[in-house]
Every structure is written in C-alpha cells, then in structure tokens.
Amino acid sequence: MNMEKLIGELRVKIVEILNLPDVTPADIPLDGQLVGGELGIDSIDVLEMVIMIEKDYGVVIDNKELGTKVFASLRTLAAYILDKSPRRAN
Amino acid sequence: MSDVPVYIAGLGVVSALGRGLAETLHALMHGRCGLGPLGVFPVMSEAALPVGQVQLADDGDDPLPRTHRLACLAAAQALAADPGPVDAIVLGTTTGGILVTEALLEKGGADPAAFRHHGLGTVAETLARRWGCRGPLLTVSTACSSGAAAIALAMALLRRGMARRVLAGGVDSLCRLTYFGFKSLQLIDPGGARPLDQARRGMSVAEGAGMLLLTRAAPSDGALQLLGAGLSCDAHHATTPHPEGRGALAAMQAALADAGLTAGAIDYISLHGTGTLDNDLAEARAVTTLFGERPPPLSSIKGATGHSLAAAGAIEAVVAALAVEHGVAPANTGLSTVDAPLKLNPVTTPLRTPIATVLSNSFGFGGNNAALVIGKGRGPQASSAAAPPPALTIMAAAGLTGVGHGQATWERFAAGGDCAGCLDEAIVCQGLPPRTIRRLKRLPKLALALAAQACGGLPVDALPASVCLGTAWGALSETHDFLQRLFESRQQFPSPTDFIGSVHNAPAAQIAMHLGARGANVTTSGGDASFEQALLAADLLAADPGRSILVLGVDEAQPVLAPLLDPSVRNAPLADGGGALLLRRGGAAGPTITLLAYRHDSGPAAVQHLIQTLGGAQAVRQSYGVILAGIPAAHAGQAARDLSTFVAESGFEAPVIDYRRAIGQYAAASAVAAVLALRLVQGQAVPAALAGGVEHPLAGKNVLLLGLGAYLSAVRIALP
Q1: DSSP assignment of B367-431, as one string?
Q2: Which of B172, B227, B572, B615 is the most exposed place for a label (fewest CB within 10 A)?
Q3: Which residues in chain B have Cβ-Cβ distances shorter than 8 Å to A58?
Q4: Contact yes or no for B489 and A44 at CB 8 A
C-alpha cells in the first residue's frame, strides 16, 4: 500500500467510524491538527481509531504518549501505519 | 449540616484482601497486595491483566450471579451483631447480573428466565428477601462513585426520618464488560495499579462489596458516625475528570459543610486514587486546593484491593471506619516513587496514629463525584427529625412516546388512543446539536431530548443544578453492541465508545454536560420502580430553598435485549420513551409532585398500609379525582388484585386508568404517566375517552399515580 492510497482510505474510515457531522473525508487536513481542533475529534475518538487501526492494519498503539505522537496529524498517522504494519506489502 | 446523628452500627466487607473486618484489617496493616490473575471468565489473549478478585467458592447450585453473592456475604457481616429487619436498603452497583448475561449471550441463550437476575435492582431485592425488608429499596448507579453515593442517600433517608435502620453499601463483580471496557480505554496498568506513582499506567479492575448498617439510634458499642456526605458532577466530559478537579473539590467541600467541619478537622484522607494518569492528577489538585500544601496523612488502597468500581466507595467507607477504630492509616500499596507534579506525600507504610475523622473520596465516569466524612461522633444530640420540607413544585415537564414529544402524546392519550411504539430517532433528536449526539445511541438520545424539551428557553438561573434519572435497564444498545463486537472479534476489538455509553449513568452525565448541571447527579435503577427511585433521590437531595433539579424516567426498547431482560416487554409490541420533570423546592407557586409512599411490597396488607399512609379511605376519596395505575404485564395478576383491593377498601369511585395500555409496556412508562398526570390536573378534567364516555371534572381534586406489581408506590400530582 502506498502513502497516498492509505491517506485516502483513512480519511473515509475516520469520518465513517467517528460519525462526524458536516465533515467530509476531504475536510480532514493532511498536516493540520487532527485531535482537539475544529473537526471535533477528541480523546474518545482517538481510542476508537486505535481499535480500527489495530483491526484493519494490525498496528498496535497501546499508550497515551505514543498515541499523542502518532495522532498528531493524518500524515503522522499514515506514516506510522506504513512503518509498522505487517500488511504494508499489500 | 444536620443535627440528626447517623450511627454506623455494623460493617461488612469482601474484597481481594479477604472477607470480613479482621482479614481486611490484617491485610491493610501488613501492606498486602490482593491483585492477581483473573479466573472469573476466560481471556483469550496471552497477556491477561492482573485483577482484584475475591476468592469465592464455585457454587454450581447457587443460581445467583456473583454480584448478588458478594452483596449477601458483606450484608451478613454488617447485620451479624444486630440482625433485626432493616427499614430500607440503599445499594450502589453497576454490574448487577451482567456476568451471567454475558455468558448467556455468548452462547446465544434465549431463555428469558435465565436473565432474571440481570437488573441492577435485583441485588437489593435479593438482600430484601433474605433479610425481610419490605420498605424502600434504592439502587444507585453512578459508575465508580455508586457505593459512596448510596451511603450518602441512605444518610438522607435516616435524617429525613423515613427509616431508622438502613443497610447501605456498594457491590460489583468482575465481568467482561468492565475488564475489556477499561482495557479498550487504555486505563488498565498491565503491571497492576500503583496509584500516585510516577510510572502509573492505570487501574486494576476488581470486585467486592462493602456494607454498612446505618441507624438513628446509637449502638451500644461505640459512637462511630457517618458525619457528612457531598455529591457533585463535573459536567465536563463523559470519562475524563475536570483537569483541576473542580467536581472533586466541590464534593469534598460539600461533605465537610454537611458534617459541619473544616478541612483542619480531617485526620486522614482516603483517596479515590485509581492509578490512572488523569484521576490522580485531578484529585491531587483538588486536595491541594482544599487542604493546602500540608494535607493530613493520605493514601489510596486501590493498589491493594484494585478498583472494585461501585463497591469501592463502600469498601473504603468500611476501611475509614477501621482506620478510626484502630488508629491506622493504610499504606498506598504499589507505590515506589511519587509522581512529583501531584505534590502529595502519601502514606507508604501502614501508619499508626490517632484518627478521629476521615474524608473518603469516590469519583466516577460522567464526573459523578461523592465524598463521605466518617468519624467519632460529637456526643449525644437532639435526634428529632426535621419537619417534612415543602413539596416539590413542577416548573416544567416533557414527555416522549412512540407517537412523539409531549403535545402529540397528550393529544393521543386524551383521545383514548395508543401511544406505544418507538419514535424515530430523527424526530427524537430534533433540535439537539449534531456534535453532541454523534456518539450517542438510543437511551442517551431519549434522555437528552427530554432534558432539552423540559429546560428549553429557560434562563440560566432556572436550569437544574442536579439531575436524577431512573432507568430500569440502562443503555441497552451500547451494552448489546459492545458485547456483540467483543464476542465477534474474539475479545479483540470491542468499541471504547460503546463501553463509555454502556454505563447506566452515561445519559444523566450527558444531560449534566448539556445543561451545565454541577450539583448531585444520580442514576437509579430498580426495575419498574426506577422512576419512583429517581423521584425519591430528588426528594432527598433537594434543598429548601434550592436550585432546581431535573428528574427523569427513561428506557429504550433495544430489540434483542429488552424482551430478554424485561418480562413485561416480552409479549407486547416494542415501546419506549420517558418523562422529565423540572422540580424546585420552596419559593415557587405551581403544581406539586410528592412521593407519598414507596415500598418493596404487595398484597392486601400492603395495600391497607398504603391507604393508611395516604390518610385513610375518606382522604383518598376526597383528595383524588383520578387514579393512573401502573400495571406491569409481568405482574398483571398481583397488580390487578392489589388495585381492586385499593379501590374496594378506599371506596374510590372516580376513573381509574391503566396507563400502560396506552403508553406501552416499559418501566419508564410511569414517568410518562407523571407528565400526563400534570396535564390532567392542570386541565381539571379527565377527558371523556378516558372516563367511560363522559368527561369527568376533577373539581379541585388531585391525580394519584399508583405503582403496582413487585413494588407499591403512590405519587400525588396536585395544584397548589
């Protein structure tokens, strides 16, 4: 999987699982603040994304400190998944 | 502050540290840790997390769930020295029979009888049967503060003179929901809880029970008293405490004020201290704000017991009593290096020191906070209960049924029509902010919609400070979905959002956040009497004069679980909804609502007693122009017999309306009925369709809301 495809996929999944009102996948910025910003994504959403990322990509993010770094932006999230995913060869 | 002393006449405790006061004290004196491997249900992953498990013999013959058995063990201890009947039971629990329910659902169990101990209220019912209590039962579910909140409400019952002996406490068993739920929130320390430690990573889930026999009369062997209690709500976030510990501070201040003490009178603080990053920091900040840089000795015992959720506050109340009796402050087990930003110096080895007064903290999800003050009494005092306070005035009301919000429901009801059904969620949520409801499922949506309808357009100073919400089954959609995903993913991927939403007090916490209600926030759950229990809690908590308090009854018809859990739902069309009443004591004119009677009782003698409580047959005939009778389908025979006894013995001749026929078969139907009763009394007439074809004028009389079945209750809705 390449970075661009993964980012597109994550945008769709984030909007879908977080049920964000009035947010479309395109609204999620690549480098802007992902959590705590205007999108309304909060710490509970982060935990929900953690589950999705483990389920769909086999990548575990099991503590808050790591989570803060990984979920800094959509780009950092995608990069972490690409780096750690056992399925990245797909 | 009250001048009515409340004595602690008996204590019972079961935890990972052992059974009974002697074992518990011995473990605490020696700084023993009770955490260990989980053996209550199978865990598939290789790395099971340590828990605080009670060593309980596997009794295959006992049909009671683990929670019920733990409660019975602790209650037997608390009542051992003074075993007479108790007037009331007030219990905090979050798990009820869920451990059995989980196992049944995983296997696809569909026999409703197997689920009969699911409801939170069945724990208190079990104790009531075993120890012969026919008085009020009150089951409080405010997550991890449930046990302490239950003790606070029991104290209010005693002070009000509504009981002289009350069994109060908290209980929870280990179960999949809490173990995997807290795991999904990353709130469990894989190495075992180490509260206040710089390396802490969370709590250890645990189980247990703590029970207190609270009395108005002084026991012969001591003067240990429950001196004060304080409740508050953060109204900040569904799970995370307010960063400065705003609600924690408010609860501690309220408890001290209630006890008539200043911070300087506290000799030991039993911290909530779960071991999560956020709780410990928020609590430390609140403690420092209240006690300054040099607080009294303090510690959390949750590194030793684990966090037994609803039991924790009650177990720690028992430990507080032991601390006073034996002059020992327990150690903060599990701690190696204190986290510097906390600015606290917890007790690291058990400390022998005279202790007269303890402050015990319990905080829960939803920002539901409770603090208790336990200690040596202030000596003999006048112990006459205060005169009954003025009735609660209804400032606003809202109802919701299958046909719509209040007005639509009233019109259908008044026309003799059928309101039963499940209202489309788009209509339920009209006017609610999309961001507020994006993570919510049906029950919190119903609750928020009712709160918004009842409080819409009110000025800030008229909004409620407190919320009391009764629900028989809690958030069934979230509970169902969490367990479903847990089973389907072989325990790997349950939803943290569903776990947060599954706790019984989540809807009331949502209301508190929506309305900024930072006072007491209490969720009650006692089967068909859940709304009546919320009304009782509100009556006990409402100050005179005070800010307004929102009382709700609400339940949802989750299609899989509702028919399995509620035998009244089984053979009826699915229906749900609820009612909300904004109440205020003192200083306002308007229609009033009064819980005149509420007992866990039925049969001819109980009905006779009820009529006497209402002032006798003549008073019933003169006071009431219509009866709204709650007849749960599962208890139809008993309820119908008791209703005809009531009508015959009182000589009541005005209309009697079986309201569940119109509203539907669900526990919160009585909350809808209360809202409809208000319309009847305001209109001063029973519409023809409900009165046998001819409009029946009320002629200044009131409406009586009669609850029948396993519980007997009477609520008066009256014009001023």
Answers
A1: GEEEEEEEEE---S---PPPPPPPPEEEEEEEEEETTEEHHHHHHHHHTT----S---HHHHTTT
A2: B615
A3: none
A4: no
